[in-house]
Amino acid sequence: MKPLTLVFGIFVSCASVLAQQPREKPKELDTLGQNLGYWTTDVTSRPAVWTPQEIKYRCSSHAEFVLNGWFVKHIEVNHIVDEPEKVGKSIWFQSFDTASGKYVTWAFQSTGNIAHSTGTWDATTRTLHHSEVEPPPNTTSKFTESYPSPDSIRGSIAFADDNGRTLFDMVWTRTRQAGIAGKPLAEQWAAIGAPIEPIPDEVKKLEMFVGTRDVEFIQRPSLTVPQGSTAKGTMSGRWILDGRFLMGETKLPTFQSLWVMGYDANKKAFRYVLFGSNGRIDENIGQWKEADRVFDWMLVNGPPELTRKSTTRRLDGGRVESHVLAKTRDGQTQMDLTIKAIPRQ
């Protein structure tokens, strides 16, 4: 799979949902319910150009519905067979996007890798066919997961180049478990261990978002909120995946979100993905300006009819303040939002 962002996405996304009514969940989410529970997985990475030697992995994972049942959250701990000290971790979120009519998966790994795929369900063969959103250049891929029984999942992913050479070839079988024996899986997953690779210095800039904060959303009159509004809530952030990423949670009276943020060395930019309790997914990409102590952000998957600029500034005393301004093509203000976050004492 091909080798992410955060509070700011929370700021941006929460602002736009404060005035929205809850949406009805699509029935397609029932398909993802097949993943719920504890699993062990046997994985084989077959010899290929990218991985010349065969490697076998053993994984333990757990999946549950979160955010009002809009997403399935998976956590996984894995190690190379016969090398239990070489531990890797991952987290991924799955949902169904009603706009595109496709299943959506976002995965984050302790190696720093980020994967984003969409998929379709074949009810006849009981198979999810995935497609990488950003595959490596000049490659084709095949990525499937089938459900032969309620207690078994079989998957495979392969990449080939334009000349037909197999670049990567991996297969796996998941087997449902009554529970995971030994050290609790969540405890293993949450522990911050030694990074598999050196963590980029850029990731350390996210330290300012660790901890719990009280937040206030102040919306000035706009097309979204003609009379303006205010809302208060809480926000928390913590390191995950051996310090490679930051994961947080924001809670408002009518909206909750989980978000993951990190630094993408390939894009040379910060990225975050937000998952909302109304089924919303926001992807942002940003740059840090050290002289101004500010992040500049761009929403990647926003509607084309809007232009939106957002900044988040680090203030003294651990305070953070963000501003979001969105306008329509004819210059009307769709959103004018300020978010103030103050660390709890």
Mean of residue pLDDT values: 87
Assign an overall shape: globular
CATH level-1 class of the largest domain: Mainly Beta
Return the string of H and E elements. HHEEEEEEEEEEHEEEEEEEEEE
**CATH third-tier fold name of the largest domain:** Lipocalin
**Main sheet?**
10 strands, antiparallel, barrel
Tally of DSSP helical segments: 3
Q: What structural category do the secondary elements indicate?
A: mainly beta
Strand order of the largest sheet: 1-2-3-4-5-6-7-8-9-10
As for the number of domains, it is: 2
- First CA to last CA: what distance? 42 Å
Q: Please identify, by name, the CATH architecture of the largest domain.
A: Beta Barrel
**Percent strand:** over 45%
| Assembly status | single chain
* Relative helix content: under 10%
Radius of gyration: 21 Å
The CATH superfamily title of the largest domain = Calycin beta-barrel core domain
Report the count of strand segments: 20
The low-confidence parts are 1-20
Features of this protein?
10-stranded antiparallel barrel, Lipocalin, 3 helices, 10-stranded antiparallel beta barrel, 2 domains, 345 residues
Structure write-up:
There is one protein chain. A hairpin with a 4-residue loop joins β4 and β5. This protein has 2 domains: 7-18 and 197-343, Beta Barrel (Lipocalin); 29-190, Calycin beta-barrel core domain (Lipocalin). It has helices at residues 7-17, 29-32, 185-190, and strands spanning 37-45, 55-66, 71-80, 83-97, 102-109, 114-122, 127-132, 139-149, 152-161, 166-177, 211-219, 229-240, 245-252, 255-264, 269-276, 281-289, 294-299, 306-314, 320-328, 333-343. Helices cover 6% and strands 56% of the residues. The chain is built from 3 helices and 20 strands. The longest helix is centred in the N-terminal third of the chain and has 11 residues, at 7-17. The strands form 2 sheets. The protein has a 10-stranded antiparallel beta barrel. It has a 10-stranded antiparallel β-barrel with strand order 11-12-13-14-15-16-17-18-19-20. It is mainly β and 345 residues long.
